[in-house]
Amino acid sequence: MQAASKARLQIHFCVVLWGFTAILGKLITLPALPLVWWRMLLVSGALLLLPKVWRGLLAMPVRVRWAYAGIGVLVSLHWLSFYAAIKLSNASVGATCIALGPVFLAFIEPWIARRKFDPRELLIGVAVVPGVAMVVGGVPHGMRLGILVGVVSALFVALFGSLNKRMVDHGDPLTVTCIELGTGALFLSMMAPLLPHAGAAFVWPNLHDTWMLLALSFGCTLLPFALALVALRHISAFGTQMITNLEPVYAIVLAVVLLHEQRELDGWFYAGVTVILAAVFVHPLLNRQPGTTRQPELLGTAESHGMVE
């Protein structure tokens, strides 16, 4: 098998694993706050066992470390709102909201990257509006707060994705991931008393949740990250984004098969999802640059979410 074909299959496998993050978020009985805290703590703790990460930390200027730490705060807020959206609605709704990330990115990246705004990107945002309206109309009234929280999560995706792009050449990807997730865990620890929660902010997971957290942290975070780092050497940025944009599709299919969520949602929801995903797939077509490779830092802290041009 040619290297490029093998790389595409690897990226598809990574996207399937990322699609499971929404499913596991629904299956884990912990509230969103301890769920995200444990995930960040486990992943960053595992990375600290690697000598390469320590070498990267020591070689990185203090100013750059602080910049990545700030991005880590945004990552923690993204994951917190993402899993809160799943808890307030279901995995399909959470995955659909995250599909809005590239739409927000079309508006936020020109501001952060200090490049000229492209009017074509405005069309993407306009095209998504009817899809969002159909999604809202296609879910039970009690799930609509989950949609609102999910949209906020997608906004955080665009923010930290754009900032990671700006910082793309300043650190080893594993080191960057360790700093961002470690800082995220520390930030949540400090903010826990101020965030709404029932009972203790951080609780020990039961046996069921422990296995699920391990699968989420290592099977759906570190494993696909490592595979993606290898695959990205052989596939273009455009090809990567077209594959990673399938993540909400995989997540929704998995939610239907494993959680039977189609019983909770009607045809308007799936029509709206189709409209949103169509706009998401148009975005890389408008900005196609097939000669470049995807920057690996962006895969370290977002499941995928189409964070590359």
Write the layout of secondary structure elements.
Layout: H1 3-27, H2 32-47, H3 51-59, H4 62-88, H5 91-98, H6 101-113, H7 119-137, H8 144-166, H9 173-191, H10 207-231, H11 237-244, H12 247-259, H13 267-286, H14 297-301
How does this structure look, described?
It is a single chain. The radius of gyration is 18 Å and the shape is globular. The longest helix is centred in the first third of the chain and has 27 residues, at about 60-90. The chain has one domain. Helix content is about 75%, strand content about 0%. It has helices spanning about 5-25, 30-45, 50-60, 60-90, 90-100, 100-115, 120-135, 145-165, 175-190, 205-230, 235-245, 245-260, 265-285, 295-300. The protein has 14 helices and no strands. Helix 3 crosses helix 9 (about 175-190). With about 300 residues, the protein is mainly alpha-helical. The model is unreliable at about 295-300 and about 305-309 (pLDDT under 50).
In short:
The protein has 309 residues and is mainly α.
Strand-and-helix sequence, N→C?
HHHHHHHHHHHHHH
Number of domains: 1
Helix content: over 70%
End-to-end distance, in Å? 27 Å
Keywords:
single chain; 309 residues; mainly alpha; 14 helices
